[in-house]
Amino acid sequence: MLPRNATGGCSILGGVIPSSIEKEVVIEAPLEVVWRVVTDPEQIRQWFADEAEVELRVGGSGRLRFKSGDSYQLQVEALERPRRFAFRWVQPEGSPARADNSMLVEFTLEPAAGGTRLRVVESGFDTIDWSEPEKVKYAEGHSRGWQVLLGRLRDYAPSVR
User: Fold this and answer.
1) Taking Cα atoms as reference points, which of 160, 161, 153, 155 lies closest to residue 38?
2) Which helix (H) or strand (E) holds 72?
């Protein structure tokens, strides 16, 4: 078990298992283009997953597959074109997504000088029913992963017409 800090959280190399990871990037592309890059399976394959399927409606399902062999089902939680897209993922295969067995990923888009500001928040690290070492592993891995993925998206989106 990891040591607890004064607020009751679990220490991670001097930090706390986060409730969420937040990343933000300004992309030199119009809002509608960034929306398409974030929600269209063909575009998702260019910066995020090697294979992507998304039924683009609230309650819709989908799947992301990666070269590593990892495959995650997803469930669309919010769809507010062209400003907000959210889905739950990493739940056990075949199980409906809930707060205690999945992570919530939210993309928020807004116009910004020179393009579009994209904010990604992945939450649920502190509430998912996993061991503390698993929470640490996923929080650290996903934090690094989103940094890389948003860099890819930032570089790719301006080329989309």
Assistant:
1) 153
2) strand 71-80
Q: How many helices (H) and strands (E) does the chain have?
A: 3, 9
**How far is 79 from 108, CA to CA, in rounded Å?**
10
Token pair for 59 = 């309650």
Contact by Cβ (8 Å): 122, 140 = no
**Tens-place pLDDT, residues 111-137:** 999 999 999 999 999 999 988 888 988
Nearest alpha-carbon partner for 120 in 49, 55, 27, 25: 25
User: Strand 51-54 vs strand 103-112: parallel, antiparallel, or unpaired?
Assistant: unpaired
- Kindly report the pTM of this predicted structure: 0.88
> How large is the C-alpha radius of gyration of the chain?
16
Domains and CATH numbers, the chain: 11-159 (3.30.530.20)
pLDDT at 112: 97
Q: Residue 59: is it exposed, middle or buried by C-beta count within 10 angstroms (0-12/13-18/19+)? A: exposed
Contacts of 71 (CB under 8 A, 6+ apart): 63, 64, 65
